Structures
1.
Amino acid sequence: MSEKNKLIPGLPSGFEDRWNKTLILKKRLLKVIENNFIRYGFDPLETPSFEIAENIGSFLAEDDNNPMSDVFSFNDGEKNITLRYDLSSPLARFVAQNNQELPSIYKRYAIQNVFRNEKSGNARFREFTQADCDIVGNVNPAQANAELCNLVASTLIECGLKKDQFTINVSNRKIIQGLIQDLKIPANKEIKVMRAIDKLDKPDFGIKGVEDLLKKERKDKSGAITKGADLNDDQVSKILNFLKIKDLKKLKQDFKNPITLEGIKELEDLFEVLDFGNYSELVKTNFTIVRGLAYYDGFCIETNLNFKTTNNKGKEIDIGSVCSGGQYNKLISRFKGVDIPGTGVSIGVDRLLFAMSQINQVQLDDQKPVIVCVMDEKYLKNYYEILDILRKNNINSEIFLDSKKNLGKQLTYANKRGCPIAVICGENEFKDSKITLKNLLGIKGEDNQITFSKENLVNEIKKFI
């Protein structure tokens, strides 16, 4: 192949390779998260990456003229299919399809990748791993939602965060829905208002950005324009005043709409149940949280980290929520004959990974292998006998795979791998039933090599690892 035609290695924007310590940390987080989900009584579910487009719905896009713009969709003959953008929509389809076989209260967890065709950057990816827990069925909402709050708190602590490093913020969509009703905002503008409010704490937004989205339009730093809800000045002013309220008592004094009061009562009931557990002090009210997805209709939750993160250029960034979710009473009812409420939370594993990679407070079990060097090809059988002993004793180990390389090149390879120990045996060792070990992590200039009887191999190695 000519130089001109050679491929240039690279990835599309929003996609990322993960390896070495980053991937080891991710795998540890996934293991901890799954174990905690199981401990809370959730059962696993796995759904395909693709769903029929009309089943998965369009809840992401802010462009009414192009409702599927934020997802990856493809024509599949008679139907369009879409890569799942979250794990809740596939759950809704699954429950509707299998509800006769499921228990009356279905608690499921799913840990899978999702795909979003949106702008990437600042720990936002177009493919990322979500870890979801949902409770589907007719339940006491306060109990179910308190269970989810407790689950989020305990999971993040198990992952290695300290209690003061994150805050679980909760609200209820009904509170703002009552205000929208009082302000006589038409139903077709409701989701635009919700999405505008939901962006208050997002990077580069703030109160001015929300105000612009509630009015005619917002222009971002790049010059891109997002069409707003086109509310009048009085409506915008009252919504912005609402956003300044921080506690339930003040809310009850100022707002008397029945829907708003219903949302307030549901939050009060939630905190009553939370007081029975161990994490109530980590849960705070934040009435600006309404969740951007259209299918939420009650309880809302967003979990934010209380420490700063930086991008690969060293610039301080706000990565947003690492765990969010809420209540959806109508998502499953889109399917004929099924009307089952649900509530759930979703941990953004890769966003959490991005943040935790920077604070370096999780001890990783990154045990590199012992390397068995090949000094002489005629002893290859003997080297494999040593390798077998190590592996049978659960010692990570490998044999050098090119017997024609000299010892220096084998040790260079071992050092690059970070191997802690090299087994170096030649004719004299095999004749005397001895083993020689070289401590590759020892201090340079010191005697880092020992020779001993073959039967002591495992005990001697364990002194180093």
Note: The radius of gyration is 28 Å.
2.
Amino acid sequence: MPATVLLLAASPVGRGCLVDAASVLPVLAAVEPAVLSGADTANVVELADPLEPQAVLTRLRAAAAASGPLTVFVTGQLQLDRKQRLPHLALARTTPATVRYTALPWHWLREELRLRPPGATSLVLDLHADAETWQWLRANPLDVGRGNAVYGRVAPPPGRRAVASPTYMKAVATILRSGRRPPLEELHQQALLRIADEAPGLVLAAHGPAQDDPHAAISAAVQAGRHADAEALAAHHEQAAVRAHGPGSDPALHWSEVRADLAMLAGDPVRSCRTWLSIAAARLAAGQPADAPAVEAAVDRAHHQWGQLQEPADARELGAHLADLRSRVPGRREGALDHVRRQLSQLQTQG
């Protein structure tokens, strides 16, 4: 099966730009797809200075859904939103005041990669942080999710009014242009050696965990088409988490989220939508705020699955619950509640 490579380079236009991210794309694009991916054949998707976080999410979601190995090269800058102080990848229109609405939340990337098989996903990162985000990173790890290999660096902010060059990623691209992709750990070390005359900042180097992770067994079952087995394994771990931590606990809700994703992968949008709605309601009942990332993600995923429903009766039933949740959790996509209400209005005229 072919591999997938996602090349993402993004930074704000104007004074807020910390790194000339797009300058690395011509060098990376000159590398043969097979070398970029480390596989015989590969599909390469390139995103240069994208404008909208939803557009990036769509491409990321499609790449994450591919069954073969996935390598994600990300060059850009990290900023915190002012409300929740969570890291985002700044996009072309991002300013310090609009991070929440114009940048890609970093946890979106982690969430989209969550159900990929352990060891099937690699990330190569050359990120630059503004002063506020740099301080945040000193106390908080940049989470890319379990089971994924990550290599790269996060550089501190450049000098006043300076725009940095993505030297780490350019070094990676230059090495790959030789026509051979060494193991990623070796590639990472070679790139660091090439930029040894500068302070690399925060160095990122982590392998995915070993295959005894229960997520590995679930992913293997999905890859083999054994969806019922995958669901049974996830349900078993969910019940164990409920017994150990309670029904509204994060461990229990995590396994509920896994089951919602498994229903989607099995082609059962009714069960997936219903489960995501229950997860969102449980998180709100536990006192989590409406703009918490996990709450927003649950409602967004329920909304997406609702859009896949074929039977009007199912759409009406679940749409009523979705509209209620959307009134409390509007999310980041403008007009989401209006969309549900319009669709429900149309459904009322159907038999």
Note: Residues 227-245 form the longest helix (19 residues).
3.
Amino acid sequence: MLYEILKALHIVAVIAWMAGLLYLPRLFVYHADAEKGSKQSETFKVMERRLVYAIMEPAQGAVWILGLLLAWRGEWWASGWFQAKIVLVLLLTGVHHVYGRWRKTFEADRNTRPASYYRWWNEVPTVLMIAIVFLVVLKPF
């Protein structure tokens, strides 16, 4: 029963983290088009900061802790699918940290990239998530 509870909590944390990873670059798209120092820009700064610190950071921590507990309880360490999943989750974590740096750039009114740049980056977590879900569900190797 503990394993199932951990899995349910892990899934909830993944959903919260992915929501943030999909929404934050969308905010960047709109923020990039807002005039620096405008009321709209300042509103985006608040939204981005709250999203990162109230949702994304706690969810990411929970995903990692619960995921490692699941791997331990399920003895998945040597499984090829699990090792591939860890690599993809590390990439997703890297994307999370890149987004965090970009948020600080926006916060300091130093963004120089166009909205289209962030629109492209909005797709990266989606592709990683799809690959991770297929690995976990199918366990192909």
Note: Helices lie at 2-33, 39-74, 80-107, 115-121, 124-138.
